[in-house]
Amino acid sequence: MNMDSPRNALGNTVLVSFLFACVLCLCTWSVSLSDPLSFSFYRSQANMKTSKFPADELELALERVSTPNKTVIIAVVNQAYVEQSAGAETTMLDLFLESFWLGEDTRPLLDHLLLVSVDQIAYEMCFFKRLNCYKLEAEGVDFGKEQIFMSQDFINMMWRRTLLLLDILKHGYSFIFTDVDVMWLRNPLSRLSIHNESVDLEMSTDHFNGDPRSEKNPINTGFYYIRSNSKTVSLFDAWYGRKDNSTGKKEQDVFFELMDEGMLGRQGLHARFLDTAFFSGFCEDSRDIEVVITVHANCCRSINAKIKDLNAVLRDWKKYKATRAEAASARGDVTVPLRWTGHFGCLDSWNNNV
After folding, report:
1. Residue 264: exposed, middle, or buried by beta-carbon count in 10 A (0-12, 13-18, 19+)?
2. What Pfam families has UniProt attached to this entry (predicted)?
3. DSSP label at 195?
4. In whole angstroms, what is the distance from residue 114 CA to residue 64 CA?
5. Which residues contact 120 (CB under 8 A, 6 or more apart)?
6. Other CB atoms closer than 10 Å to residue 215's CB: what's the count?
7. How far lies 146's CA from each of 61, 74, 93, 179, in Å?
8. Tally of domains in the chain
9. Which residue(s) pair with 138 in the sheet?
10. Model confidence over 227-241: pLDDT tens digits?
């Protein structure tokens, strides 16, 4: 009778176990590579100190879109951003989503986007588009209509947004916050310090003064990355705590006042300010389409004007991609000069109600 010896049986068991471990590692590596956001954050996962938080609705929503090290992308919408007005070609939300479709290495990032709706119509539209949705309750306040820049309703909505973002930090999640009027033309992870734990905050600017450490940069809270830790929670607590003593000021103005008073230094908080060459806007265009990452419709007063000019941005981007592809196929110079279309709708918005 031919029977395996105990030594052979043990050897076979070890071999099978080794092969199973290899397959498991390959599967894990494959998943990481298919998700650029998750892969970029994976290195710091082992250093994260996870803390348990009650499983409220916000926690469940954040957990659903989070990367392994608890980082998410947050955007806020209302009815005016999701419904097409009579004078508009499309909606702000549709332009925002189209930029992820057209951008370079941006489509997988939608898996980590949590779209926060401040009214029921926006919430229903979010679900209709099969996105990751969260309903922000705001009792007794109608945030659904268009909030004209610097109107009292606009200011109130910005402060309600700030309170939500503070809550997200307290839940232990770091995030990239983006306004919906920001076009994502390239994946921003290569330019953000997400895996550099010495940086707590990176914020966009209306005009970049050349020094990424200078707190004199005119900030814009429409796009930034912030790491969840005790320093940033304290900063946002102090920021929101000034709401009732800042009549007539938007939350961005109050944040700049905190910086001017040295709050970042007192908190031991390390901040960087983003170069408009990469994170640009209508206040200051990027001079190089070869490196631009985002385009923000800042320095603009109304939604219709933003839609008009952001449509032009995406047309310029599609033209650039087509020209680059033609140059590459012809084995010619792939450097494609481009002049952005003028932001005429936004310029007119300051003089007219458009």
Report:
1. middle
2. Nucleotid_trans
3. T
4. 9
5. 135, 144
6. 16
7. 26, 20, 13, 14
8. 1
9. none
10. 999 999 999 999 999
